Amino acid sequence: MPSHADFLATPPQGIPSPHAAPRDVPPLKAPPLDASLAGHAPPGAAADPAVRPHPRQGEFGFTVGTRLCRPDGSPALGRTGTITTPHGRIRTPAFVTVGTKATVKTVLPESVRELGAQAVLANAYHLYLQPGADVLDEAGGLGAFMNWDGPTFTDSGGFQVMSLGSGFKKVIDMTAVETSGADDAVAPGKERLANVDEDGVWFKSHLNGDMHRFSPEISMGVQHRIGADIMFAFDELTTLHNSRSYQVESLERTRRWAERCIAEHFRLTDERAHKPYQALFGVIQGAQYRDLRRKACLDLGALPFDGFGIGGALEKENLGTIVGWCSAALPEDKPRHLLGISEPDDLFTAIENGADTFDCVSPTRVARNSAFYTPHGRFNLAGQRYKRDFTPLQEGCDCYTCANYTRAYIHHLYKAKEMLSHTLISIHNERFVVRMVDNAREAIGNGTFFELKERTLSAYYAGKPDPQGP
What we know:
InterPro entries: ArchSynthase1/Queuine_TRR, TGT, TGT-like_sf, tRNA_ribo_trans-like. It comes from Zafaria cholistanensis. This protein is α/β, with parallel strands linked by helices. It is built from 15 helices and 16 strands. It folds into two domains: 62-358, Alpha-Beta Barrel (TIM Barrel); 367-460, no CATH class. The chain is 34% helix and 17% strand. The longest helix is centred in the middle third of the chain and has 28 residues, at 244-271.
């Protein structure tokens, strides 16, 4: 297995901009679906039929439970199910809490359990840089390292390498889709920190500027040593600014990388036979183009992945459409993870269109800015109206915070710059999202999903002032 030092080859002298060109096709106005994609990928693009499943893949499993039906009785793409991992089961749909650096920010692992989270997702890019994947391997893996005994996920690091490399801060801007230019992926005033080639990506560490190399093989090595139950294949992130021609080029590269990820994953699975089996999910790209999304689903769906992640740049208004395209084309018997969503309307839309699990940093991120979720919308505790509000964040909420603390107290903590405010609001926000998805799962089972969706979203997006408190 390569050492950490092996990952640091001689970097290029400079990092040029990517092969981005002005965006030339409006969102969702893709060309007609090629007839060759109706049942299989076109010649030369299909997955290698020689790739066979690994004998240990039976240690991971997914079973479909209840299928969602619309009010008129017609079938929808949503479903309940159960993911089985070496460290426990995940009942789906499920919201996966994000512990980027092996911690859900400001929240104890014990509190994460108490708020009902079934799994935690960490970030391979950040853990590779600090403390190093070898440290987690010596500790017994991600779960043992952070004292979490449930299922764990790691992403490949591709999103962070590409997005940080493009000069974005925390979240890629999904709204500025009309801008065109030679290198629109780089945010104004930012330095490009990464460059993609056929073999992988060179990138500068955001911590100290050191040069590093990620490739499919390196990503697999890092993720195997981190030791999560579910890993994601290394893929190239594109943005809505990239031209269709570049999306096509990138999609083919991601397919080739997927095949390399599987080969290295199976090799490492044999090499580390004494370790619990780690599942590998392929990542579906293709931006807003139906034919490209379908091609990605057919190509990667023919490979022996354990499940799939739906990734890439998605405009909010097209989320359900794109998730539906992917769900309809991917293997029915494998789980689908939608990367990076937590807003109530997005969650209900994704569940309805066939996504099984989700992750997002938003519940804890907004908490650190004093924002908290309620059934009537998101409100900000920094406002003066909360100074003498001695009610819980949400009447009737079953979380630890609401059972023990008042809005007035947490308002005081935030104003006093005490970190406990971040912890208490984060616990509530995570519980709010976990409970919402749990309720959606139960509603699929009892046939009330669409009633729950209407009731929940109409209240949350009513746009009215906070009705609770003095």
